[in-house]
């Protein structure tokens, strides 16, 4: 089993920052290609980066090519398919009236990662770690826009957006556990090699499935992604960098710690949004950021 180290902390923070950059580029591409096109760009243009990185790790890392077992393949399939399902379910939640409620439920991913890690990976959580997860999740809830009225809020908790959002959080949590499980199954002694192998094969599967589906249903989206190659390369490189850092962190530390720390991405994105649109921060939003940062500090205190 790959030993834990403090390296997962800067890797996770880098992943959060790179995800913020990727999301910014994807928002630009969504206007041109739609949501599925922007998602395809992430997979398609990220594959060369992942392929080159895997070759470099194998050539310079000093570790031999690990044996790719059926167990590894199973975890990779689980991670890839559940990540795609999580994205689809979140988009479905966003199509419903209660966008805010669906988004809140999707952020239950952090709590569900902790539960699934205990059930499927045998990981344990300290009381401090549990507190950090709960506090950080509450911070995300506070940063989420409120429904338009109290009456609408009461109705919205029972509408389909909530169910889709909760299902999205579950799918993303299973995906994180799948990546962690695949890393541990390789037992190659190098977190960088384990992450490179896991991410290469999972994203290759995702790229093939999504590209095949779009070619059959709407080939114009694939052609558009090829035409928008300049911005697409930027989004693909940022996305691949974020994924490599995130999955490498998952090879070094428990999934619950990594996914709690990466919530700092919400703070990054929030300040970028405020900077671009010059909007003031209200008291509720400030408290939400404080909660997230408190959760981050607590989860870092459990690192060893």
Based on Cα principal axes, name the global outline.
Answer: globular
Q: What is the string of helix and strand elements?
A: HHHHHHHHHHHHHH
Structural class call reads: mainly alpha
* N→C terminal distance: 16 Å
**Helical fraction:** over 70%
Query: What portion of residues belong to β-strands?
Result: under 5%
**Quaternary state of the chains:** single chain
Task: Please tell me the overall pLDDT.
Answer: 80
Number of strands: 0
| Residue windows where pLDDT falls under 50 for at least 5 positions | 149-155
Tally the structural domains. 1
Helix count equals 14
The value of Rg in angstroms is: 19 Å
Largest sheet: none
How would you explain this protein's 3D organization?
- The chain is mostly helical.
- It has one domain (8-125, 160-254).
- It is 82% helix and 0% strand.
- The protein starts with 7 loop residues before the first helix and ends with a helix.
- Residues 149-155 have low confidence and may be disordered.
In short:
With 304 residues, this protein is mostly helical.
Q: What's the SSE blueprint?
A:
Elements lengths: L7 H37 L2 H14 L9 H26 L3 H8 L2 H13 L5 H17 L6 H7 L3 H27 L4 H27 L1 H9 L1 H24 L2 H7 L2 H14 L5 H19 L3
Helix pairs in contact: 1-9, 1-10, 1-11, 1-13, 2-9, 3-4, 3-8, 3-9, 4-8, 5-8, 5-12, 6-14, 8-9, 8-11, 9-10, 9-11
């Amino acid at each position: 089993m790959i030993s834990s180290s403090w390296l997962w902390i800067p890797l996770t923070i880098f992943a959060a920052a790179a995800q913020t950059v990727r999301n910014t580029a994807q928002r630009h591409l969504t206007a041109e290609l739609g949501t599925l096109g922007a998602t395809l760009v992430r997979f398609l243009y990220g594959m060369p980066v992942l392929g080159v990185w895997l070759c470099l790790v194998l050539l310079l890392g000093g570790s031999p090519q690990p044996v790719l077992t059926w167990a590894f393949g199973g975890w990779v399939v689980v991670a890839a398919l559940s990540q795609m399902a999580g994205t689809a379910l979140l988009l479905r939640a966003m199509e419903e009236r209660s966008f805010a409620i669906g988004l809140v439920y999707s952020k239950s991913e952090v709590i569900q990662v902790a539960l699934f890690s205990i059930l499927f990976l045998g990981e344990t959580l300290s009381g401090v770690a549990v507190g950090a997860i709960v506090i950080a999740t509450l911070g995300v809830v506070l940063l989420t826009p409120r429904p338009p009225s109290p009456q609408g809020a009461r109705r919205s908790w029972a509408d389909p957006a909530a169910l889709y959002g909760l299902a999205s959080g579950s799918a993303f949590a299973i995906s994180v556990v799948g990546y962690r499980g695949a890393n541990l199954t390789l037992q190659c002694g190098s977190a960088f090699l384990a992450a490179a192998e896991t991410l290469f094969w999972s994203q290759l599967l995702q790229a093939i499935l999504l590209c095949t589906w779009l070619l059959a249903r709407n080939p114009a989206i694939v052609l558009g992604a090829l035409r928008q190659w300049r911005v697409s390369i930027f989004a693909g490189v940022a996305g691949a960098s974020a994924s490599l850092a995130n999955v490498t962190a998952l090879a070094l530390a428990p999934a619950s710690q990594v996914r709690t720390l990466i919530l700092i991405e919400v703070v990054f994105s929030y300040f970028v949004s405020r900077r671009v649109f010059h909007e003031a921060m209200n008291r509720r939003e400030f408290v939400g950021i404080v909660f997230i940062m408190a959760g981050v500090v607590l989860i870092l205190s459990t690192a060893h």
